[in-house]
Design goal:
single chain; 863 residues
Length: 863
């Protein structure tokens, strides 16, 4: 064994890759490969192991592979690095099979690196402009091999041809497995030089390496920690609630059938539409006082009548504006209830299908991963993070059984031994708004945000504080009806209402008042106002306009909100907080100049379109060329430009300083008219808006869009290579673009663009999006990313302290700004201290003090 792989003195870096029978936790490892560099060799060595338990002599191979793991991965004295591609998957299955305990502490493993994680970190926006004829994902090993190593590596599908992996010739699988391991270590060597080590090239963002080592790598272990331990699940209670939901659904069905006057298949969209719409038994009075039946308002993309829960909510709100007494409202509310019950029932049934019986009781092992764009943790198979806290969130259910009225699907995440274990929880207060405030304070040292986020004995409520500052008269009127004259509302901050109580905090002394008891109506009014401003603050983070803000406020308040009312709120907010707009403008101008914005933690967030333009400008070093497809007065033109003339400041108040907004170049080398028929596919695809939903996971769904770009590029290149002199119209267009010695192309004309980069996708034309559109979508992503970095730091500190103290505790549900820890009861007080210490730490380079609220210990997940 030592003649092949030196287990006594292992290399400084090895790559491990495994091939499996599936992607779930119950998948079996069929083969494994290890790759490493020997001395100064330029090509890596590799060795493969056939580990299929159903084959002959697998135990010998298994022992050899286990020796390598013990000398490297499971050896704390090993000073080298073990590299994976998608460590969350490979490491989990290796630990399940070869780790000798069912618990682990991260300091019992050696240093680990993940080339997929590094790839995402180096270009987090890559999938937005990704196109590949083979449908390879942009951070996949095969695509990265093409991008960085320049060769095509066989895909798993091409090797197996759809046949069960256990039936494939082992030599074929081992050759593929070894190649994967070799590609992985080659990529890591390139990444180590390009991203993780110091470089003298000023054009390369150098904070990537520090961020990866200090935050991204430790967070890989955070995610693995959650995946390894899973979630405790109460199967008995789940089955009880399923029976209760089934019985209540049957009752609702009967009442809906009686109201409509017919029996029908309520699960059929077509039958449901026929029963509800144009039914004379379901009538209401419109704004003219006339009785009318319910009309279908919405259609699906296929032209069918929409009958989903959002449709029923919208119709119910429309009817309530003119008639609050009609019996049709009850039927609509029952349809909403039925939809919510069905969704919950489906979720619980899916959870039960993933339950695994362990010595610690039933557990579910969902797959937690990090989002490529923002880094936020997401969950699948099954999805626990997308669950509603309450069952009836959109209906006005009053006759719901008591057990269902207080039902939260999160309560099914329940400790097995209630006598010995509990769940401790901490919630970071106003994490996402803190990021906006942190960025804004840099532009105004006297910002009101400093006062709002000041560290106090008792935390004030951010959303009510913003309401007080932006709309002081309305705020005063609300509290004048609630509290006595001893508290002048605008002279005090107020806490978040809890258990029908609030406290007033003196603005000068920061001293809290006695608890003020609220009636049920008063508490609902305070919560209503708080909910409105919580939605409004979210809209500010998303840089939403008046129209979107009005729609969201309408959903929250259940009353009409005009665009003018929403615009008034936005104007007053930016009047009181002009530094927020300055922060937004600065991020937008960074996008234009660099193609990315760097967070206070050192992570670069790359923007769509302008990252490509800037990256090409840096790589070309003064010889940059750009191709644009422009539509001008109904005609399509290919315009090739050279030497981008960038300016330092182009946007203010998220609008171009010069109108219209233009990209300026020193020279135009080619103008050629293109046939309009080339773009017939882009019109069809654009109408479907597929590319607006493009993501790393749904490449199959957007295949039409992918293929259309490939076909459009091929047809453009065919015309582009035809010999053609400039037409008279082309010359006229050329002279019309001259602007102060440069050539200015207005953004409103540009449809597609192409610049040549190392990325294979760069050979295809991509959809161009204007700077203002890119900036409006990028700003919330940037803020989410900064908030995620903060949450990562808290998560890492919590996990590290648990490992250091060797506590019997497991982080079971990291909900971005909330941490839930399953812990033994006699150690719960230690976990509370760890949570507070991690969240309120002053070690973070952040000018807003973070605070948290600790929930009471419960045997189930907090809702």
């Amino acid at each position: 064994m030592d003649k092949i792989f030196p287990t006594i003195d292992p290399p400084d870096c090895i790559a491990i890759d495994v091939e499996t029978t599936g992607i779930g936790r119950d998948a079996e490892i069929v083969s494994a490969a290890v790759s490493w560099y020997e001395y100064d060799s330029n090509e890596p060595l590799s060795i493969g192991f056939w580990l299929d338990r159903y084959s002959d002599n697998w135990k010998n191979e298994d022992n050899l592979f286990k020796q390598i793991l013990r000398s490297t991965l499971f050896n704390t004295e090993y000073k080298g690095t073990v590299v994976f591609h998608h460590a969350g998957f490979d490491l989990k299955l290796i630990m399940i099979r070869y780790y000798e305990r069912d618990y682990f502490f991260s300091d019992e493993l050696c240093k680990i690196a993940d080339t997929m994680s590094i790839s995402r970190l180096s270009k987090n926006n890559k999938y937005l402009s990704h196109t590949d004829p083979l449908k390879l994902k942009c951070h996949s090993l095969k695509f990265l091999a093409k991008e960085f190593l320049g060769y095509d590596h066989s895909t798993f599908e091409s090797v197996t041809s759809g046949v069960n992996i256990n039936l494939i010739d082992p030599s074929k699988i081992l050759a593929y497995n070894r190649k994967d391991a070799e590609v992985t270590i080659k990529l890591y060597k390139i990444f180590l030089h390009s991203f993780l080590e110091k470089s003298s090239k000023a054009s390369t963002p150098r904070l990537v390496g520090d961020y990866y080592k200090n935050e991204d790598f430790p967070h890989t272990l955070n995610v693995f920690h959650v995946n390894w331990y899973g979630q405790p699940y109460n199967v008995q209670k789940a089955e009880e609630w399923l029976n209760l939901i089934s019985d209540y659904k049957l009752k609702i069905e009967t009442e809906i059938f009686n109201a409509t006057g017919r029996w029908f298949n309520i699960g059929s969209g077509r039958d449901l539409a026929k029963a509800i719409f144009h039914n004379p038994r379901l009538r209401y009075r419109d704004w003219r006082g006339e009785l009318r039946a319910i009309d279908p308002y919405y259609e699906t993309e296929k032209g069918q009548t929409r009958v989903d829960i959002d449709t029923w909510v919208s119709i119910k709100n429309l009817i309530k504006e003119t008639d609050k007494q009609t019996s049709a409202l009850k039927t609509l509310d029952q349809l909403i209830q039925y939809s919510e019950l069905t969704k919950t029932e489906t979720a619980i049934e899916r959870h039960l299908s993933f339950v695994v019986n362990t010595k610690d009781g039933p557990r579910v092992y969902p797959n937690f991963t990090a989002d490529a764009l923002s880094g936020r943790i997401k969950c699948s198979r099954p999805n626990f993070m997308g669950l509603s806290k309450l069952l009836h969130k959109k209906s006005d259910a009053e006759d719901t059984p008591e057990l269902l009225r207080n039902f939260s699907i999160r309560h099914l995440i329940y400790v097995h031994d209630e006598a010995s274990y509990t769940i401790a929880s901490a919630d970071i207060i106003a994490l996402d708004p803190s990021v906006v405030a942190h960025g804004a304070i840099r532009y105004n040292d006297n910002s009101i945000f400093k006062e709002i986020f000041k560290k106090r004995k008792i935390s004030i409520d951010l959303h009510l504080a913003i309401a007080q500052i932006v709309m002081p008269d309305k705020y005063r009127n609300m509290f004048s009806q609630i509290v006595t004259a001893q508290y002048e509302p605008t002279q005090y901050w107020v806490t978040k209402p809890k258990d029908s109580k609030i406290q007033f905090i003196d603005k000068i002394t920061d001293e809290p008042s006695e608890f003020v008891l609220l009636s049920k109506e008063e508490e609902e009014e305070v919560k209503r106002v708080r909910g409105v401003w919580k939605v409004f603050n979210l809209m500010v983070s998303y840089i939403s306009g008046a129209t979107t803000t009005a729609l969201k406020l309408k959903e929250e308040t259940k009353r009409p909100v005009s665009i003018y009312e929403a615009q008034e709120m936005l104007d007053k907010f930016y009047d009181k907080f002009p530094e927020v707009r300055m922060f937004q403008d600065d991020i937008a101008n960074q996008i234009y100049r660099n193609g990315y914005a760097t967070s206070v933690f050192g992570k670069n967030f790359y923007a769509n379109v302008f990252d490509d333009l800037n990256e090409h400008c840096r790589q070309a070093e003064g010889h940059d060329r750009y191709q644009f497809i422009c539509k001008i007065k109904g005609r399509y033109w290919l315009i090739e430009c050279e030497n981008w003339e960038k300016e330092d400041l182009v946007l203010e108040n998220l609008k171009w300083l010069e109108s219209p907004g233009c990209l300026k170049f020193k020279n135009i080398s080619r103008i050629q008219e293109l046939d309009a028929y080339i773009f017939r596919k882009s019109k069809r695809i654009k109408k479907k808006s597929k590319f607006n939903r493009k993501s790393e996971e749904n490449l199959d769904e957007t295949l039409d869009y992918e293929l259309s770009r490939i076909q459009i590029t091929d047809e453009i290149d065919k015309q582009r290579h035809l010999p053609q002199s400039w037409s008279s119209d082309g010359k006229t267009l050329f002279f019309s673009l001259i602007d102060s010695g440069n050539y200015a192309i207005p953004e409103k004309y540009i449809l597609f663009y192409r610049v040549m980069l190392r990325n294979p996708s760069s050979q295809y034309f991509k959809v161009y999006k204007s700077l203002t559109k890119v900036a409006r979508k990028f700003f919330p992503l940037f803020c989410q990313g900064v908030a995620t970095s903060l949450a990562k730091k808290c998560f890492t500190q919590i996990r590290t302290r648990i490992d250091e103290l060797k506590l019997d505790a497991k982080i079971i549900m990291p909900l971005h700004d909330q941490f839930e820890v399953e812990v033994r009861k006699d150690q719960a007080h230690l976990i509370d201290s760890i949570l507070v210490e991690a969240i309120a730490s002053d070690k973070y380079p952040f000018n807003i003090p973070l605070t948290c609220t600790l929930e009471e210990h419960e045997p189930h997940l907090h809702s």
